[in-house]
Amino acid sequence: MTHLELLPFQQDSPPLGRHVEHDPRSLAHAYGVLPRSAIKPVDWTRRIPVLDQGQLGSCTGNAGTGLLGTDSAARPGLTQVTITPEAARASQGHFTAGSHALDEAFAVSLYSLATRLDSFPGEYPPVDTGSSGLGVAKALKALGLASGYQHGFSLAALDSALQAGPVMIGIPWLDSMYSPATDGHITVDPASAVVGGHEIELNRYTGAAYWVTNSWGPSWGVGGSGYFTGSDLAWLLSQSGDVTVPAWTTPAQPAPKRCWIGRAWQAARTEKART
């Protein structure tokens, strides 16, 4: 049976919309953890602009769209995708066959499909129900854009997944987290009220900070981004948080070089071979 736990969902500004949904397969086949020596700082380049979900609780669709538009070890980030006729049929009317730009309209359609594939009552449209990382992963697979997906539930799993590419994280959102500091630091005060659940893309790890790209427009944080400390992010993940890691089906171009901060790629490969 699917394990469901609904975090509060509200449509106040800024909007939220992530629910917790961990199925038995996700829990039984969680993302593996690499040795600590294999964990390096990474900075995966995003090729599409920061999106803005407006008053819609479509953060899950926005995070999934951000992953498609960001570099990974498998392929460069995309700016558009092609939906096949078969995938269009699988989308239950939310996508037409052909080329689609990775913009806010795409994110909303991806969210809409996720609301049909998740385990929560209601669908958007007409009801803005919110969805889950699992729901969006299922939508990406239905569209033929992902061949599968895994989930992680700890900071160690997140660190490991980041070595191969960006991820999306589903976390509780606290009142203290709405307005990052001028340097982008997001304050996580456990005593602050939980105002909902949120799904965001995480594409940069400096060794001390985890940078996320939000879907509240470029005026939020530093150009639409902000960062968590490791201890704060570990705590958020412990509060029914999760990490969603799709496996892409579109390696169409040569994979980009990894942008590891402070260490050459060849040196990292040598060290990994020793472990």
Q: How would you concisely characterize the structure shown here?
A:
The chain contains eight helices and eleven strands. The protein has 275 residues and is α+β, with helices and mostly antiparallel strands.
Relevant terms:
275 residues; disordered C terminus; 7-stranded antiparallel beta sheet; 8 helices; two-stranded antiparallel ribbon; alpha+beta
Q: Could you characterize the architecture of this molecule?
A:
This protein has 275 residues and is an alpha+beta fold. It has helices at 24-28, 59-68, 85-90, 104-117, 133-142, 155-162, 230-238, 265-274; strands at residues 3-5, 20-22, 42-43, 80-83, 98-101, 146-152, 167-174, 194-205, 209-213, 225-229, 242-248. The strands form 3 sheets. Strands 3, 6, 7, 8, 9, 10 and 11 form a 7-stranded antiparallel beta sheet that branches. A two-stranded antiparallel sheet has the order 1-2. Strands 4-5 form a two-stranded antiparallel ribbon. Strand 8 and strand 9 form a beta hairpin. Residues 6-12 and 252-275 have low confidence and may be disordered.
Low-pLDDT segments, ≥5 res: 6-12, 252-275
**How many β-strand stretches?**
11
The overall average pLDDT, rounded, is 89
Largest sheet, if any? 7 strands, antiparallel
Please give the count of helices. 8
Strand content: 15-25%
- Estimated structural class: alpha+beta
Q: How far is it from the N-terminal to the C-terminal residue, by CA? A: 38 Å
What is the N-to-C order of secondary-structure elements (H for helix, E for strand)? EEHEHEHEHHEHEEEEHEH
Name the helicity range: 25-40%
Shape verdict: globular
Radius of gyration: 17 Å
Q: What assembly state would you assign to the polypeptide chains in this entry?
A: single chain
